[in-house]
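Notes from the 1:1 (GR / supervisor)

We went over the backlog. Supervisor wanted to see one worked example end to end before approving the batch request, so GR pasted a single chain during the call. The sequence is below; no edits were made to it. Supervisor asked that the structure be written out right there so they could see what the output format looks like.
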Amino acid sequence: MINPAKNTICLWYDGDAEEAARFYAQTFPDSAVKAVYHAPGDFPSGKQGDVLTVWFTVMGVQCLGLNGGSTFKHNEAFSFQVATADQAETDRYWNAIVDNGGQESACGWCKDKWGLSWQITPIALTQAISDSDPSAAKRAFDAMMHMSKIDISKIEAARRGAA
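Structure output shown during the call:
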């Protein structure tokens, strides 16, 4: 039996919570599938014995995947933000999500194949857009606004005024 944290993120899935949790566990460090529970009886979106909930962690954050059916869909109002150290890490996470049936969005955002939004955010971007020089911060911000996946070298060039 899982000992839930005081505050756990509950993510609604349409029957594929276990698949999603296993993907996250394989993709991100400090992530794991902790437990899979099957329904003790029929429920609106499934039958007795179907996977009802999946307890998992994503980068140390405890989550509960609920196979609640097709009523509710993920949207950009909720996202995981992943701070990346360099371009290789940025590329690895971005490509894992997009290449596994996901889709690109703007400014470092993408969606996984289950519709969950992710912000793959290089630390260099966060530093650039919070630069103490307002002109450098604006140049970096303006460069980001034209990107899907963040290109750190272009952000840093814009920050320096070289772009």
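Supervisor's comment: Strands lie at 9-13, 32-38, 51-58, 61-67, 79-84, 103-104, 109-111, 117-122.
Batch request approved.
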